[in-house]
Amino acid sequence: MSTVIKGGTIVAADRSYEADILIEGETIKAIGPDLAGDTVVDASGAYIIPGGIDPHTHLEMPFMGTTAAETWESGTFAALSGGTTTVVDFVIPGEAGMLAALEEWEGRATRQASSDYSYHMCVTGWSEKHFDDMAKVVDRGINTFKHFMAYKGALMVNDDEMFASFQRCAALGALPLVHAENGDIVAALQQKYLAEGTTGPEGHAFSRPPEVEGEATNRAIMIADAAGVPVYIVHVSCEQSHEAIRRARQKGMRVYGEPLIQHLTLDESEYFNRDWDYAARRVMSPPFRNKLHQDSLWAGLAAGSLQVVATDHCAFTTEQKRFGLGNFAKIPNGTGGVEDRLSVLWTKGVETGRLTPNEFVAATSTNIAQILNIYPQKGAILPGSDADLVVWDPKLSKTISAANQKSIIDYNVFEGFQVNGLPRYTLSRGEIVWADGQNSQPQPGRGKFIRRKPFPAVNAALSKWKEVTAPRAVNRSPEHMPIGV
Ligand code: DUC
Ligand code: ZN
Ligand code: ZN
Ligand code: ZN
């Protein structure tokens, strides 16, 4: 059985061109003019883009005394309906450690996922067991480790723990990810605002100003430099953080920055002079910022100092948000976005001229695949790549509304947004899994775990301290080397 996608314009990260795509089984077999296949998918008048990759989701995550309500079943189908064919979710170890948590995540994902998926492993403390478990996690096909510099008393790691973990990442060829907010200052500001009687959702924004993000981003980058490892900063929301990333990149460090579609398009006015539910539904960390910060993020995407656009999809119901009535610090942090990332970015980015269609593809798919080391299996339209393809119709439009979304949450932070550009078809490994207007259904269990190998790249530290001590011992056993290196 073969499928040919005919009549469209292929938009890759590096160029756009007209060609047909022949798919055999789950992969792309050929690209060229006048190809024939058993089934024809009509792409006339449309673009063909590589399936979106959302590098940042929290499906069914236990967090802040509750569990994110978006399930693997609803979240991954919502993703496909919006043109995202792979999600990368965060595994949070509990008392039983990383490997036990991984089993839990795998249990949920294998049964429920309609889209392909991968994981990042969170490092929430440090011990000899963490040191050992990280190697086992890498052997399981996970090459990224996430560190929270915020959420004091819960997920937060201190600098010594982060430095130990970063050094371990360097030795394993893994990439550390960082949630960069100064958790000590956030905790102090939360107490201050609560003591002053500011208990509503606006207190959330006041207690997490851009300075706490800028400080932590700088610190994470310097610790990464000391450890000689690249670093990826998640949900970059402000100029202070973006500036730190720009500066490091200019010095030759591999530092990556990930803004979210929410921070690009929603601003701090969402928290002020609103009814409680409206504002609380938009409480996430970092909070939404003002227009100057938004402009900085858009500029970074165009200039390449920020590389990817994610969602941090971590969706709670209104009822769950109300756990924080009377105390903003207890409002579960998180918003949705996995369904709408591509259409909102197309409308607010490409249609406005801020991004080219090729930059759009780079930020939603190709750059992510490269940074996470799954390119060109994912993120590419090339012979041999997985046939994760979206027939992207710039003339399809809709008004975003919770009333007709695939997400099972009772609201949508983009409610009322008019978007142009939607998938006519989404193909996952060669199969049409979403067709506009055709009542597509989730296929729980269809999604596959995507293994990610360690990286060839390390950062030769700019810091000099290692040169005057012992040379760094890098443990690179052959199974930790990517193919071709
Ligand atoms: N921020 C959120 O808003 N939710 C999940 C975790 C995070 O860091
Ligand atoms: Zn040991
Ligand atoms: Zn975070
Ligand atoms: Zn997150």
UniProtKB/TrEMBL annotation:
The keyword Iron does not apply. Its cofactor is Zn(2+). Keywords: Hydrolase, Metal-binding, Zinc. The modification N6-carboxylysine is found at residue 146. CDD domains: D-HYD (cd01314). One of its GO terms (biological process) is nucleobase-containing small molecule metabolic process. Its EC number is 3.5.2.2. GO terms for cellular component: cytosol. Residues 47-433 form the Amidohydrolase-related domain. The keyword Coiled coil does not apply. Transmembrane segments: none annotated. Carbamylation allows a single lysine to coordinate two divalent metal cations. It catalyses: 5,6-dihydrouracil + H2O = 3-(carbamoylamino)propanoate + H(+). Homotetramer. Catalyzes the hydrolysis of dihydropyrimidines and of the structurally related DL-5-mono-substituted hydantoins, to produce N-carbamoyl-D-amino acids. This is D-hydantoinase/dihydropyrimidinase. It comes from Kaistia nematophila. The lineage of its organism: Bacteria, Pseudomonadati, Pseudomonadota, Alphaproteobacteria, Hyphomicrobiales. The gene is hydA.
